[in-house]
Write a structure and sequence with these properties.
By secondary structure, this protein is α+β, with helices and mostly antiparallel strands. It is built from 3 helices and 5 strands. Strands 1-2-3-5-4 form a 5-stranded antiparallel β-sheet, covered by helices on one side. A hairpin with a 2-residue loop joins strand 4 and strand 5. Helix 1 runs antiparallel to helix 2 and helix 2 runs antiparallel to helix 3. The longest helix has 18 residues.
Length: 135
């Protein structure tokens, strides 16, 4: 039964986003393009689409820099009830970033400013940075 003036909201069923990437900065540009396209298909407007792409880029850069130089890292994404969750995982160990100079060490602060929530989980298998954004 439909009622006049009541908007019907239809949730899109989205396939999850999954990429396993070599720890090489040359993989970042293709990651940004494919993630942006996936988010667009999920009807994530801009903003916050570009914010999510940049936050993922920053977390992926850390995965490359601090993860295993020989093992791929993964980027997984899901959309459920207008909430995007993106997880960037590697086999690296979490360390507080050492600030060797003032030109480094701002990536996590940038990520936190661009998404609703950021979580860092670490265990003996590696590190996962989880980004959450409502849209």
């Amino acid at each position: 039964m439909r009622f006049a003036g009541v908007a019907e909201r239809v949730e899109k069923k989205m396939e999850p986003f999954l990429q396993a990437l070599a720890p090489d900065v040359a993989r970042l540009a293709p990651l940004r393009r494919s993630l942006s396209s996936w988010l667009e298909k999920a009807d994530v407007a801009d903003p916050p689409r570009d914010d999510l792409v940049l936050a993922t880029h920053e977390a992926a850069t850390n995965a490359i820099e601090y993860g295993s130089p020989k093992r791929p890292f993964e980027v997984r994404g899901s959309v459920v009830d207008r909430v995007v969750t993106i997880a960037i995982s590697n086999e690296g160990r979490w360390n507080k970033i050492r600030r060797e100079n003032d030109d480094r060490g701002r990536g996590l602060a940038l990520i936190e400013a661009m998404v609703s929530k950021m979580e860092i989980e670490t265990d003996r298998k590696g590190t996962t940075v989880r980004l959450v954004q409502q849209f």
